[in-house]
Amino acid sequence: MSVEDAWATDPDMINRDTNNLNEHLKVSFEEIIGEPDSTHSIDCLWKYSYKCFSMWKSLCYIIATTFCGIPHAICWGCTFACIAFIHIWEITPYLRCMQIQLDIYKKCSVMYYAAFLEPYCNACGAFFNVWRN
């Protein structure tokens, strides 16, 4: 994606986790606090506890993302840009260089096996084939 493409497109404002990366973070009040049938608190306490939990979970997340969202996005953008740079300019050329360098050893090994080991293996195969019949 080019810089122009990054500025031209807008994110999906409805489905913000299209790859379900954070499926494990879908936490509801009922998954955290539960009263068995034999033990119940006062109904209004249960109802307002639910509302407080939901409100504070949302409010704290909004406050944290307001102060830290953009700095974190900058840091993660720089991190993945550095990873891309390292792969494009260091790792991939190094692997290609190694592939070119080791290719000569591969060719020599194939010639060695074809010249020395293949006749020996064929002779052994023919010898044992006689015993099979």
Secondary-structure blueprint:
Elements: H1 3-8, H2 29-32, H3 43-132
GO biological process, one term: caveola assembly
Membrane topology: Peripheral membrane protein
Subcellular location: Cell membrane; Golgi apparatus membrane; Membrane, Caveola
Entry summary:
The chain is mainly alpha-helical and 133 residues long. The chain has helices at residues 3-8, 29-32, 43-132.
Explain how this protein is built:
- It is a single chain.
- The chain has three helices and no strands.
- The chain is mostly helical and 133 residues long.
- The model has no long low-confidence stretch (mean pLDDT 90).
Number of strands: 0
Strand portion: under 5%
Give the ordered list of helices and strands: HHH
Number of helices: 3
Instruction: Report the end-to-end length measured between terminal Cα atoms.
Output: 66 Å
Features:
133 residues, mainly alpha, 3 helices, elongated, transmembrane, golgi apparatus, transmembrane helix
